[in-house]
Write a structure and sequence with these properties.
Helix content: 40-55%
Number of strands: 11
Structural class: alpha+beta
CATH architecture of the largest domain: Orthogonal Bundle
Order of helices and strands: EEEHEHHHHEHHEHHHHHHHEEEEE
Number of helices: 14
CATH superfamily of the largest domain: Hypothetical protein af1432
Strand content: 5-15%
Shape: globular
Mean pLDDT: 85
Distance between the termini: 43 Å
Radius of gyration: 22 Å
Length: about 450
Amino acid sequence: MARTRLITVEQAKAGQRLALDVKVGKDTFLTAFSELTEEHISHLRDHGVGEIVIVDETAGTEVTEPTDDYEILEPLANVPDAKLSDAIAALDKECAGELLPEVSARLRPAQTLHLHAYAYARALEPDRSLPVETPTEEEEWFSRHKEQLRSDAGLVPVMSPVLASEVSKRLKHAQARISAGETVSNETLGELAQFVLNGLNLDSNSYVSLEDLGDAADLIPAHTVRTVIVFLKVAAPDGEKRKRQGEFIKGIACYNLGLASVVSQLARAGEIAESALEKLPDEYKNLYHKLRRAEGVEESVLEMVFLQNEHADGEGFPYGLSYDSIPQHSQLLALASKFALLTLSKPRLPRLAPRSAAIRILARVSNNFYSSTTGLFLKELGIYPVGSAVKLADERLALVTRLHPEDLLNPVVRIIRSDSRDAAVVGQPLDLRRNDLSIAGALREF
């Protein structure tokens, strides 16, 4: 099997062969296995192509890791509130085009399943480290006082830190069993689902914790937990019953663990290169049928979980479904999984703040997601989610306590500060829709 290598266009040389198609927008600029010429390279530069994947003809050369599909190809200026507000407003309409084309042009167009495979493959390699982020002084202060501040503001976690830690431990144990070739029983999954449901709070005053990861080995369990939390937080208003919620927890868990197992097998075979991932559609279908036979998850739920990699434009996995052919819950799950992965640190790639994650999601409407479902997702989760800390235009810090679905950039907040005894204090509710104040930025959670 040919090895591949990711290079910048500036490193490209005439005579090299492409391993993958080069696309500009939706158009194929050069096809895979084309031999590059100086004219090709010049045109690639002129069209803003930053990187290409070539066939590595050099024996023994290490394969450069592909990047994920939401990584910026070139520097991206911050999207102003006016532009973001227009994009959010457009979600209430059936969008035929891109909501943020200037952002979309700077994102790597790749398939969601490939993204998960790359992220999981990096996490499965023991020598991988997570990027270290240094909190600002304000972020350190918020980190020390966040539980008290949120409690004083009447907020509760969707899942308590203690529960999240225990669920992650159980998922790690299940992952180890699957890696050893064992099968996780329906009984084990049922116990996990019941354990989660008993400690879950999906009320409007509940918040999603966005703490960072400390170890690459935590990625798969943490991604699974956060996907469950975010999905149930946004899907619960649709009237999902408790038993149905439990089936989704089981389905998401066995899907993520199963996918990690498939990727682990590829990694052990030394095949984590983009060209090798052509096997994934078949492996994906095999995994679905295997889980359908063995795990005991309600079949309609398991099917919706596996259809999360179908894209609105018909370019997804495994069947190439598009728009209304994709169940809404599959799209909500895709959005929850995407948000979870973007807001978790990954080997080599840092996490994003919720606002930045939302911008990348909006940039993929209508390629990956259809607008109405994206609108529902963001209205439930927010651009500045409940429980997150923000910095206002007047330099004061505030805690987001309530969302306005019709005005996501101006939620209800409560000013947070230290008093004369250095204790954290929460002020009265302040509705940013009725004030001249605006949010200048968000604090990260540590």
